[in-house]
Specification:
Elements: E1 2-6, E2 10-15, H1 24-41, E3 48-49, E4 52-53, E5 63-69, E6 72-81, H2 98-103, E7 125-133, H3 136-153, E8 158-163, H4 165-173, E9 179-180, E10 185-187, E11 190-198
Parallel strand pairs: 7-8
Antiparallel strand pairs: 1-2, 2-5, 3-4, 5-6, 6-7, 8-11, 9-11, 10-11
Keywords: Autoinducer synthesis, Quorum sensing, S-adenosyl-L-methionine, Transferase
Family: Belongs to the autoinducer synthase family.
Protein name: GNAT family N-acetyltransferase
């Protein structure tokens, strides 16, 4: 687990459920925030249990980048390396990461047309999903900066993102050079775009 302080109040914590240094409560707060935003506010049809939103990509080794201040989680994101293979969860289906699984038609909620070409499997490429903030640009920028710092430490070359089109516009405004992986697609939950950014 690593932790940094931005300004006088906000902390950014990076880690996973394997860490033994108290991050579990922060991750739990992030999963609760996801339920509050994605299910209760945005009305996405996602699975929730015990006040948290949790799915197959939330493994014990999944990395989380979480912003919190004064004991309250105010934003976060989930990171998965693209060469990950998840344990079998439904029949013989083996999941890897969200963008690739959507392209392969394994996720009924996301259109297969998300990408023009088959997404990569590469230890130097990571995926960021479930990006959520309660305080717009300030928290979002802090999380993305910490993500870039962490991925650089891991020797990553690039990161794949999945989110609304505004997510790519925000990354551009921060000085990144995002490249769309496909066209904007839509489902009952809204409009989505997959794009990639080099680690800087």
């Amino acid at each position: 687990m690593s932790q940094g302080t931005l300004g006088n109040q906000m902390n950014i914590t990076v880690g996973n459920l394997c860490d033994q240094s108290g991050i579990n409560s922060v991750i739990n707060g992030f999963l609760k925030l996801r339920k509050q935003v994605f299910i209760e506010k945005m009305d996405w049809e996602l699975i929730s249990q015990d006040q948290i939103e949790y799915e197959q990509y939330d493994m014990i080794t999944t990395t989380y980048v979480i912003a919190h201040e004064q004991g309250e989680v105010v934003g976060g994101a989930r990171l998965v390396r693209t060469d990950t293979i998840l344990p079998t969860t439904f029949g013989r289906t083996h999941y890897s990461y969200m963008i690739r699984d959507a392209y392969l038609g394994l996720l009924s909620g996301l259109p297969k047309e998300l990408c023009y070409d088959e997404p990569p499997r590469d230890p130097k490429i990571w995926e960021l999903t479930r990006f959520v903030v309660t305080d717009g640009a300030r928290v979002g920028a802090a999380i993305l900066e910490k993500v870039n710092e962490y991925l650089k430490e891991q020797g990553a070359d690039s990161c794949l993102f999945l989110g609304p089109p505004a997510f790519m516009r925000m990354s551009k405004s921060m000085g990144y050079q995002p490249k769309p992986m496909g066209k904007i697609v839509a489902n009952e939950s809204g409009r989505f775009l997959a794009f990639s950014c080099d680690v800087v």
